[in-house]
# Entry
Amino acid sequence: MKKIEHIGIAVKDLEKSNELFASLFGKPHYKVEEVLSEGVKTSFFKSGPNKIELLEGTTAESPITKFIEKKGEGIHHIAFAVDDIEAEIKRLQKEGFIVLNETPKKGADNKLVAFLHPKSTNGVLIELCQEIE
Ligand code: ZN
# Structure
């Protein structure tokens, strides 16, 4: 893993949170994206070299909707950039981590993504992401 790519925060109302985080960072989000397959709307903010992703669930089955029902709003995942997501999935599985999707899927922000089950990572949902060339 190379570095933290972004931190994902689950929010109830993306529009309101966009305003809140724009005040926090002193500048608006630079992109909004809906990932239909995941039932989420996302927006991205930059703070120096760091990125924050806000996520709102758009369906009742969305993992974000379920997360908020269970735990409320807050930090949802930490995403790490990787060069070769398939090799990294295999390596982590060998180490005993539970990978939620063995086949990387298309996530927001032009990335291939895979998630590690929080059960195997001290309660933290970890996203691996590789830039799509
Ligand atoms: Zn993410």
In short: Residues 84 and 130 are 7 Å apart (CA to CA).
